[in-house]
Amino acid sequence: MTEKPSGPPTEDHTPGDFAEAAEPFALFDEWMADATRHEPNDPNAVALATVDAAGHPNVRMVLLKAVDPAGYPARGFVFFTNYESTKGVELLAHPYAALDFHWKSLHRQVRVRGPVTQVSDAEADAYFATRPRSAQIGAWASQQSRPLESRFALEKAVAAETAKHLVGKVPRPPHWSGFRITPLEIEFWHSRLSRLHERVMFKRAEAGGDWTKTRLYP
Ligand SMILES: Cc1cc2nc3c(=O)[nH]c(=O)nc-3n(C[C@H](O)[C@H](O)[C@H](O)COP(=O)(O)O)c2cc1C
Ligand code: PXP
């Protein structure tokens, strides 16, 4: 594959020294706000890595829907999905995950690792209620990650669910909910000239514990 001429950065992209940050959540909020201003679409898209029963890694994109505010006991990163999907099954069996945000136009990456918990029914209901009706129906119709015989079979399932939910609110399917990743590690990365990038790793032993901060070689 040929690399585009725009490949490596031609200037340093680091405004200020983000290694000065005392803790990672405020810095993440700042970077997400920058991404929201600069990325052409889905600034909240993030790669989610899980492991399967054999210990083999698996990765796919999801949309980050919340970062808990300060004071929240298991303060973390929340996304929503089908608990019967491949990722759902993997996370329920092995509740530990990694996330990787890459904001290309900002030359920034954030990596997160930590234990995973299920969001409460109330949280899932509240988020589900904000989704467009068509996406709510889709959540009922899609047996996410399982074999689909034909596109027509999916369209039939959507039609059947639409007929079931013609009036009133669409309830959240019991198998559709959220996961929360409570970070024990967060690494911030920013590209610098000659691949001599800036890396800062925050680590802690447990949720709510004190963070240690370490610079890493690029
Ligand atoms: C940008 C982007 C965002 C996505 N967000 C989600 C999401 O939030 N939840 C979800 O279930 N699938 C999402 N998907 C689809 C997943 O990447 C994946 O195809 C699906 O969840 C099945 O994954 P699994 O078989 O590993 O469970 C997204 C895909 C893309 C490209
Ligand atoms: C299958 C699926 N579920 C959930 C989501 C999360 O986003 P939303 O709740 O905004 O639809 C996405 C986003 O692409 C998705 O593809």
TrEMBL record:
GO terms for biological process: pyridoxine biosynthetic process. PROSITE patterns: PYRIDOX_OXIDASE. Gene3D superfamilies: Electron Transport, Fmn-binding Protein, Chain A. Residues 176-218 form the Pyridoxine 5'-phosphate oxidase dimerisation C-terminal domain. InterPro entries: Pyridox_Oxase, Pyridox_Oxase_CS, Pyridox_Oxase_N, Pyridoxamine_oxidase_dimer_C, Split_barrel_FMN-bd. Keywords: Flavoprotein, FMN, Oxidoreductase, Pyridoxine biosynthesis. Binds 1 FMN per subunit. It comes from the Bacteria. Pathway: Cofactor metabolism; pyridoxal 5'-phosphate salvage; pyridoxal 5'-phosphate from pyridoxine 5'-phosphate: step 1/1; Cofactor metabolism; pyridoxal 5'-phosphate salvage; pyridoxal 5'-phosphate from pyridoxamine 5'-phosphate: step 1/1. HAMAP family: PdxH (MF_01629). This is Pyridoxine/pyridoxamine 5'-phosphate oxidase. The gene is pdxH.
